[in-house]
Specification:
Elements: E1 7-10, E2 16-21, E3 27-34, H1 48-55, H2 66-75, E4 80-84, E5 89-96, H3 100-112, H4 119-131, H5 143-152, H6 165-170, H7 173-183, E6 189-195, H8 199-210, E7 232-237, E8 243-251, H9 259-269, H10 276-284, E9 291-297, E10 302-310, H11 315-331, H12 336-353, H13 357-366, H14 376-384, H15 388-398, E11 404-410, H16 414-426
Helix pairs in contact: 1-7, 3-8, 9-15, 11-15, 11-16, 12-14
Length: about 425
């Protein structure tokens, strides 16, 4: 039923080319994944990967201004999307099949010959972006970033993706060129094209446009896998109308054989309004308008997040009920009804991904930076094989106090902070 099977080749310069042929679609996506992000940086360079991603928009040898570059892409119906994460950086253009060669030409020019013009103007834009995570006094209020800093300690996985303000304020063009030269070699990249394309034609176009990229070297980093004693609570005062609660757990990475059981756990917890998190805390107890759970997957680490926001007076109740709900997963298996629903919805989502070239590029291209991703049939089979016992075992491994960080950002008096701390400490 799941017909797409990726085809792979490697060019002479080390660039890996992955093609996902989806003949039923009308548009294709060209994605370049680069093994660089905040975890590859030193403290002095933290934020440089993100700054460099911004600077690619400023023009290249063939398109010497941001206007000319964006006009060229938009002129063929495309839009340049770029993002930086902890594990990778992504550059992506979606466009019609008939403009595929043009998309290759533009993307290759961006990545190989950036001009690094207008650095001070782009610096101001990035500083504005950073302002979203700080209050008026310069105190960080982004609970997800705070949780990573506490979870990962002195490891680069704790670094902010955007970096600290001081770094952004002092980066120079020489810094950008050094970072570009170190990480943007062909051997450190994966080019993935998904859509109504033929693998042979994609490889030929890649060879024509990307052969000029220097080989470079594949970069390596690792997470030591250690967790400190917990639970740990981080409180940040913020005079907003609500308090945000963020629970973060060291979880198992995508390459761990228990990862599919972890996805099943996540979906029992939060995959629709009938799942436990929303139904219990919002629908039945009225403790919040919205709560959510998610996983940040990395190739050698992962974080399971549960978060919500509520009025200050309900914070203790929301924290306590969140923890009670998570304890249920440790104490007893999920029901067969819940697990059967998870498997049906997972299959439906995989089927829907066949109509989404972005999803196909992300799975078969992005994952290929670090491991050979299984096919769609195998993924569904893996989920179908998950048992209630598997989910219980995973929950007992991940949902442990020593693996948890709780971040509370809001306006709580001393008595209420003490109540929250007591509830978290009691979870031991």
């Amino acid at each position: 039923m799941f017909t797409p099977s990726p085809s792979r080749d490697t060019l002479a310069n080390g660039l890996r080319v992955v093609t996902v042929e989806l003949p039923h679609l009308h548009t294709a996506v060209v994605s370049m994944y680069v093994r660089v992000g905040s975890r590859y940086e030193s403290a002095a360079d933290n934020g440089l990967s993100h700054f460099l991603e911004h600077m690619f928009y400023r023009g290249s040898a063939r398109y010497p201004s941001s206007y000319e570059l964006n006009f060229a892409i938009e002129d063929v119906g495309g839009t340049l999307h770029a993002e930086t994460s902890r594990d990778y950086s992504l550059y992506q253009i979606g466009l019609s099949q008939r403009h595929l060669d043009r998309g290759f030409e533009i993307l290759a020019d961006i990545l190989a010959t950036p001009r690094f013009d207008d650095i001070d103007l782009e610096r101001e834009i990035i500083l504005e972006e950073l302002s979203e995570d700080y209050d008026e006094d310069g105190v960080e209020i982004a609970s997800d970033e705070i949780s990573r800093r506490v979870l990962f300690g002195d490891h680069p996985l704790a670094y902010r993706i955007t970096g600290p303000r001081d770094n952004v304020a002092r980066f120079t063009t020489d810094d950008l060129r050094r970072h570009h030269q170190r990480f943007y070699g062909a051997a450190n990249m994966v080019l993935c094209v998904a859509g109504p394309v033929a693998h042979g034609a994609v490889v030929e176009a890649a060879r024509r446009h990307f052969d000029a990229l220097p080989r470079g070297a594949t970069t390596e980093v690792s997470w030591r896998g250690q967790t400190d004693g917990g639970p740990r609570l981080e409180y940040v005062a913020d005079p907003g109308s609500q308090t945000n609660i963020h629970l973060a757990f060291h979880a198992v990475p995508e390459t761990d054989p228990r990862y599919m059981a972890q996805l099943a756990l996540l979906r029992v917890l939060d995959d629709g309004m009938s799942t436990r998190l929303h139904y219990r805390l919002c629908d039945q107890l009225g403790l919040a308008y919205s709560v959510g759970a998610s996983i940040e997957p990395l190739h050698d680490a992962a974080v399971l997040d549960v978060d919500g926001a509520t009025s200050h007076g309900k914070v203790t109740a929301l924290v306590g009920n969140m923890l009670d709900l998570l304890r249920e997963f440790r104490d007893s298996p999920v029901s067969d009804i819940e697990l059967a629903k998870v498997k049906r919805r997972y299959r439906a989502d995989v089927e829907a991904s066949l109509d989404d070239s972005l999803s196909m590029a992300s799975w078969f291209g992005g994952a290929s930076l670090y491991f050979d991703p299984p096919g769609l049939e195998e993924r569904v089979a893996q989920m179908d094989a998950v048992t209630e016992a598997d989910v219980l075992d995973l929950a007992q491994h991940v949902l442990r106090p020593e693996r948890m960080v709780a971040v509370v950002v809001g306006h709580l008096n001393a008595a209420r902070r003490a109540e929250v701390r007591e509830r978290i400490n009691d979870w031991r």
